[in-house]
Design brief:
Elements lengths: L1 H14 L2 H20 L2 H21 L7 H19 L1
Helix pairs in contact: 2-3, 2-4, 3-4
Length: 87
C-alpha cells in the first residue's frame, strides 16, 4: 500500500498544478494531528469544514472565487491518512 501511495503522490506532482499541491500540502499539515487524535468520522467532518470554510474565507475576502477543487485537494490528505492509519 505504501508503494501505491508513493506512486500516486509522485504522479500528482507531475500532473497537478502548484496551487492544488499547496492545498494538498497544507491540508496534510492540518489533517495529520486530526487523524492521529480524533476518531475517523470526527477527523473527516473537521477537515471538511476546514476546507470549505477556507474557500468561503477566500471568496469573502476576495482573494479568489470559491473553488471546489481547492477544497477537494485540501480534504484529500485526510482520506489518504485515514487509509494508511487503518492498514
Amino acid at each position: 500500500m505504501k508503494k501505491v501511495l508513493k506512486k500516486l503522490l509522485s504522479k500528482m506532482a507531475t500532473l497537478v498544478p502548484n496551487d492544488k499541491l499547496n492545498h494538498f500540502f497544507y491540508g496534510s499539515l492540518i489533517a495529520t494531528p486530526l487523524v492521529l487524535l480524533m476518531p475517523m468520522y470526527q477527523a473527516m467532518i473537521a477537515m471538511f469544514f476546514v476546507s470549505v470554510l477556507k474557500e468561503i474565507g477566500d471568496s469573502v475576502f476576495k482573494y479568489s472565487k470559491f473553488n471546489v477543487m481547492d477544497a477537494v485537494f485540501t480534504f484529500l490528505p485526510t482520506v489518504l491518512l485515514l487509509i494508511v492509519k487503518t492498514l
